């Protein structure tokens, strides 16, 4: 970790809420997180000023990590399925926030950030977030692999994973049927990835109510913030 990375501002951009907190170099919260509802208009023009307003009361920080719900590359947004890709595609969010905040900024997929906080660093580890949509992060011996939008693979008709297990679907079909889909999804992921361990996070992981395989663990949703510190210690792009 850079010598001065002691107080990391971690920002989590979600379809339902925007969260921020100051995290110490070991991943511990240094103060209570703050949260506001994501605006109905979710374009950069609306979201960026709201983020700046959100973090203003948090005090001093020296580095910034942003978790974003979509594909990102080299500090730019590629896709934003639950915010509006047409508005975000190509937006240089890292550079904009670096200019506004005056600190080094890393922009990562939100599942990648959560994974950085929960992985053990041994073997093949898959992290999946169950929230508004479906997020994934893939690690090999503690190294973050290139992000893949697995959420947009399809199992039936036109519905991808994002639709099949997303929050809107859970509310529509009920927790019982949704859990059957999660159970099937775990089987598919195990076959495809042959992972050593799978971690389930995100707000809807609390709704999982069946017995999990020994190599599957539900993790605390706060990891989505805590991982922002490890973005400066572990190998990330």
Helix/strand layout:
Blueprint: E1 7-13, E2 17-24, E3 34-37, H1 44-55, E4 63-68, E5 72-73, E6 76-77, H2 85-88, H3 93-101, E7 105-109, H4 110-118, E8 124-130, E9 134-140, E10 143-144, E11 154-156, E12 159-160, H5 161-164, H6 167-173, H7 175-193, E13 197-201, E14 216-218, H8 223-230
Parallel strand pairs: 1-4, 4-7, 8-13, 13-14
Antiparallel strand pairs: 1-2, 2-3, 5-6, 8-9, 9-10, 11-12
3D structure, described in words:
It is a single chain. The chain has 237 residues and is α/β, with parallel strands linked by helices. It is built from eight helices and 14 strands. It starts with 6 loop residues before the first strand and ends in a 7-residue tail after the last helix. The protein is globular. Helix 4 crosses helix 8 and helix 6 packs across helix 7.
């Amino acid at each position: 970790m850079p010598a001065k990375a002691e107080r990391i501002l971690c920002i989590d951009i979600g379809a339902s809420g925007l969260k921020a907190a100051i995290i110490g170099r070991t991943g511990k919260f240094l103060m209570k997180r703050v949260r506001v509802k994501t605006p109905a208009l979710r374009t950069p023009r609306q979201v960026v000023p709201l983020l700046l307003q959100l973090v203003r009361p948090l005090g001093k920080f020296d580095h910034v990590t942003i978790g974003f719900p979509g594909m990102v590359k080299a500090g730019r947004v590629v896709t934003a399925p639950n915010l509006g890709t047409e508005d975000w595609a190509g937006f240089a969010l890292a550079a904009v926030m670096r200019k506004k905040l005056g600190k080094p900024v890393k922009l990562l997929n939100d599942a990648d950030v959560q994974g950085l906080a929960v992985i053990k660093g041994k073997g093949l580890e898959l992290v999946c977030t169950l929230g508004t949509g479906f997020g994934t992060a893939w690690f090999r011996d503690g190294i973050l692999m290139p992000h893949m939008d697995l959420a947009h693979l399809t199992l039936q008709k036109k519905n991808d994973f994002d639709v099949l297990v997303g929050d809107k679907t859970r509310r529509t079909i009920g927790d019982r049927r949704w859990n059957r889909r999660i159970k099937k999804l775990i089987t598919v992921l195990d076959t495809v990835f042959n992972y050593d361990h799978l971690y389930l996070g995100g707000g809807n992981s609390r709704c999982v109510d069946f017995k999990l395989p020994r190599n599957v663990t539900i993790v605390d949703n706060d990891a989505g913030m805590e991982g922002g510190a490890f973005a400066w210690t572990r190998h990330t792009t």
